[in-house]
Amino acid sequence: MAFVKSGWLLRQSTILKRWKKNWFDLWSDGHLIYYDDQTRQNVEDKVHMPVDCINIRTGHECRDIQPPDGKPKDCMLQIVCRDGKTISLCAESTDDCLAWKFTLQDSRTNTAYGYGPYTGAYPPGTQVVYAANGQAYAVPYQYPYAGLYGQQPTNQVIIRERYRDSDSDLALGMLAGAATGMALGSLFWVF
Prior knowledge:
Distance between the termini: 94 Å
Structural class: alpha+beta
Shape: rod-shaped
Number of strands: 9
Helix content: 10-25%
């Protein structure tokens, strides 16, 4: 697997709310992993963007947090997770913040996994797609839980009513209606 984006970001700790510099790696399978430093020895945490992330906020959308000293609010980035956790980040510049935002958003929807033949090792929440050359790719499922075997294909049936365009049918119907009306009218005169 390959890196999609790597670099330093400031992350606000959850308990003491201090800003700490962490090394972040976004992998092509959609995992965002952050470490203590660039050696990647100690994993702080990881987020599987297609599964765990429900929203990405930037700038003034970031609520209830202040940027670190000397940084503008436009450098702020928040990853809101499905379990209620919010990861508050600060980039070095506004451009770097936007680059991270677009890359993270893209990883939520366009992640592809380049696994070998199926061995049961695909992450949960993925569908297996086979390319023309037989290579298997696992693609994150974009919809909520679709059952044990995935979303079943649906057939759509379009029913069209028969429709006649001729005026003779209309005239014949009007004639039959008039005849019926006269017959019933004469029957009621008898009573």
